[in-house]
Write a structure and sequence with these properties.
The chain is mostly helical. It contains six helices and no strands.
């Protein structure tokens, strides 16, 4: 029964949401209540995850394990950010500047790491696939869009070239829409599997 209860709750909730989306007039009010419950539960789960991360870093700092310096930095920054948010408020300009000064370097570092990972993946891709029309087309297209993204060609201010670049700049958007359609299809199939009890992401 303990294993079956989450499945039953997930199935009932999924069916109710589908019916409420089909019949918004009669069930729209109840759907908003369910969505509010989901937001509250998600927020509590996020708080639990943050508390677990903080306690794990605190224990690591207290034990003096290897890399405890990073734990010390995390604990200090977390406490300062929490205190600033509680005292100044999240709408304060100085607090927003403090958060941005932490967030932006992290985002730049993650983007740099992502670039290195993608470069390594490309090298492994060519090693595994070798030189073929498919790999050549992939490499040439990647280089073309990289040069376009740098903005050097746009700086030439040539009318015909600018018009051609606008056409090329639309191609990644078409590919992105295709990826979004694939993600949406995968999410739909996963939702149906959860709805029918074939997939249990909350399980062991």
């Amino acid at each position: 029964m303990r294993r079956a209860l989450p499945v039953i709750v997930a199935i009932i909730t999924g069916v109710f949401i589908l019916v409420a989306l089909v019949l918004p007039v009669s069930l729209g009010g109840y759907l908003s209540i369910v969505l509010r419950w989901a937001i509250v539960v998600g927020a509590m789960a996020l708080l639990v995850a943050i508390a677990h991360l903080f306690l794990a870093q605190w224990r690591r700092l207290m034990r003096g394990n290897k890399g405890s310096l990073y734990s010390l930095v995390f604990v200090l920054v977390f406490l300062l950010s929490l205190a600033g948010g509680l005292v100044l408020g999240v709408d304060d300009a100085n607090y927003r500047l403090w958060v941005a000064s932490i967030q932006k370097p992290l985002e730049v570092s993650l983007l740099g790491l992502l670039a290195l990972v993608m470069t390594s993946a490309i090298v492994q891709f060519y090693r595994a696939r070798g030189w073929s029309p498919l790999t050549l087309a992939f490499g040439i297209s990647a280089l073309v869009f990289l040069v376009i993204g740098l903005g050097f060609l746009q700086a030439l201010n040539i009318v015909q070239l600018t018009a051609a670049l606008r056409v090329f700049e639309q191609l990644p958007l078409i590919g992105a829409r295709g990826l979004l359609l694939g993600v949406a299809t995968g999410a739909l199939l996963l939702g149906l599997r959860v709805l029918f009890g074939l997939q249990r992401p909350w399980g062991d």
